[in-house]
């Protein structure tokens, strides 16, 4: 997945109900080397299949139908991580604050300087690249944890508390020898050699100790 992202040109999604704006931005960004897709409404963008590569969205605030802010909220609810750059001629402070609180990459006024826009897009794409890399790492770690049996997973969560094998055995009402066997399998499957490494790995996966 990471290799695929590295090979593909980033995609810029332009969502604006002004066709002249869409055309001028498309020309600029295509000439810069980006792949571009444009949409005249939030509804038309939402009909598109979810994009899993590196991208950013240039979004007008006031659209016919669903507003840009409402689209941002909808995408946040869906767990979409593509950064949004608001580009509008109708911006005001409350709207821009709401957009930034919603995770917008930036909020720019029309007409915007080309260099400013391109620099902002570059930063947004780098942000998305980092998000995707972290998501891939987290997913690979979760896959590792999924190799554990239910009992191994249970023992692992008690190991995270720092308890000794005999203490874990008492909590789970199994023998100390059984705990030792499961603990060994956990360390082997997760490719760690110490409790400290196990703790770091579990934290990266968002797992909590037992108790």
Notes on the protein architecture:
The chain is of the alpha/beta class. The chain folds into 2 domains: 2-139, Rossmann fold, CATH 3.40.50.2300; 147-204, Orthogonal Bundle (Arc Repressor Mutant, subunit A), CATH 1.10.10.10. The protein has 10 helices and 5 strands, in the order H-E-H-E-H-E-H-E-H-E-H-H-H-H-H. Strands 2-1-3-4-5 form a 5-stranded parallel β-sheet, with helices on both faces. Helix 5 links the parallel strand 4 (84-88) and strand 5 (106-109).
Report a brief summary of the structure.
The chain is an alpha/beta fold and 211 residues long.
Q: How many independent structural domains? A: 2
In terms of DSSP E residues, the strand content is 5-15%
CATH C-level label of the largest domain: Alpha Beta
CATH architecture descriptor of the largest domain: 3-Layer(aba) Sandwich
Q: By helix and strand content, what is the structural category?
A: alpha/beta
Shape: elongated
Low-confidence stretches: 1-6
Oligomer status: single chain
In angstroms, what separates the terminal alpha carbons?
37 Å
Question: Which H/E pattern describes the elements?
Answer: HEHEHEHEHEHHHHH
The count of helical stretches stands at 10
